[in-house]
Design a protein that fits this description.
The chain has about 100 residues and is of the alpha+beta class. The protein has a single domain (about 5-100), classed as RelE-like (YaeB-like fold), CATH 3.30.2310.20. The chain has 3 helices and 4 strands.
Amino acid sequence: MAQVIWTEPAIADLEAIAEYIAIQDPEAAKAVVRRIVAHVKQLADHPKSGPRPKELGPKSRYRQIVEPPCRVFYRHDGEQVHVVHVMRTERLLRRSQLRRSVPKA
């Protein structure tokens, strides 16, 4: 079982998305956060379950899970899963978005 660790940038990403959704529908924002957190918790038992993001290529050390309307990017380093970035599915991923929150291995 891997330990799931949320990085500060990933938490900030999720909070910003929730705040944006909450402008129109606070209950929907809470529901999105609950679904994402629950989906991420499953990574403790299945850290390699998410596919590699197509934008990064087949040898990328990053993986993703999709919980609409978001993509959650993470890296599995043996005993730990580091959640590094959360973004809306309609946005394009840039490699620099993942590097800003990479914990030292």
